[in-house]
Amino acid sequence: NQRPRALSGIQPTAGSFHLGNYLGAIRQYVDLQETHDAYYMVVDLHAITVPQDPATLRANTRLAAAQLLAAGLDPERCTLFIQSHVPEHAQLAWVMNCLTGFGEASRMTQFKDKSARQGADRTTVGLFTYPILQVADILLYQADAVPVGEDQRQHIELTRDLAERFNTQFGPTFTVPAPHIVREVAKIYDLQDPTAKMSKSAPSPKGLVNLLDDPKASAKKFRSAVTDTDTVIRFDEENKPGVSNLLTIHSALTGTGIPELEERYTGKGYGALKTDLADIFVAWVTPFRERTQAYLDDPETLDSVLAKGAEKARSVAAETLAAAYDRIGF
Ligand code: ADP
Ligand code: NA
């Protein structure tokens, strides 16, 4: 296979993915299937770095896989698997832990933010070494491209540093990956606070659009989205973040360019844009939810897709791990 290889992981933590996850990440996964030898995993090992409930984790991991398939990942065209089904991730992570400086790991801003929010006593060492597990995730597949958001840039830099360090110290073993900069990754903002990124940890559930929520409730959230006191529908992220966010979502879901939307809504009020967007979202999400449910209703098919994915992933991961083990003297 001569295609460049892509690798990305997504957490199963929240159960339902939200619209930001879909437009900012999952849709790129679907596109990359066409151009890359793509590996996608549900990162359940990462999910246990914070307190978790086993039954919930098990259910959410399957739910995440079902949603990825419903969103358009095709097991014939990519490799979809569950991280814990491939033990090489934890094995290579240990090796990478032993190559990482304590100070170097301490500089990871995402850890600093998360641990500050949780407090030191509730923060696990697993959360501290989370970026190093991520390094192993990427290097195991010799990934060329890693489609991630801006917030992951520092972790990709760490991956590049550790790959180069290993290669220099023990001989060429790992591909040094580049972050995959997608031309136009939509960044989606909270519908109630359009200056904050839409996030599963949103302060108010009214601003968060979960894909598996009742579509009627989501439609209501679009109709009551916070905008501004002006009346003109124009893309201006600085002065009109709410309207700009609605235009971004509209454009991403319909494929209509933003200038064309601005023209279409000339002389119309915010209410028209919000109502249209509510309808567009419901029309998209309804079949998405049905496809997700169909996978959940057919556990044998889902198990078989995930077992095949794990087998394919393991064949690549085991080869890389064996080479790395050999180089370091095991
Ligand atoms: P959250 O921010 O809700 O905790 P995650 O950190 O689990 O979401 O993100 C999973 C993926 O979705 C990442 O690739 C991330 O960049 C992307 N993503 C999350 N929120 C948004 C958003 N509001 N807009 C665009 N992409 C997003
Ligand atoms: Na996050």
From TrEMBL:
Keywords: Aminoacyl-tRNA synthetase, ATP-binding, Cytoplasm, Ligase, Nucleotide-binding, Protein biosynthesis. It holds the Pfam family tRNA-synt_1b. Its main location: cytoplasm. The keyword 4Fe-4S does not apply. L-tryptophan binds at D137. It comes from the Bacteria. One of its GO terms (biological process) is tryptophanyl-tRNA aminoacylation. ATP binds at Q11, P12, T13, G20, N21, G149, E150, D151, I188, K197, M198, S199, K200, S201. It catalyses: tRNA(Trp) + L-tryptophan + ATP = L-tryptophyl-tRNA(Trp) + AMP + diphosphate + H(+). One of its GO terms (molecular function) is ATP binding. One of its GO terms (cellular component) is cytosol. A motif ('KMSKS' region) lies at residues 197-201. It is found in: Cytoplasm. Its EC number is 6.1.1.2. Belongs to the class-I aminoacyl-tRNA synthetase family. Homodimer. Catalyzes the attachment of tryptophan to tRNA(Trp). This is Tryptophan--tRNA ligase. The lineage of its organism: Bacteria, Bacillati, Actinomycetota, Actinomycetes, Kitasatosporales.
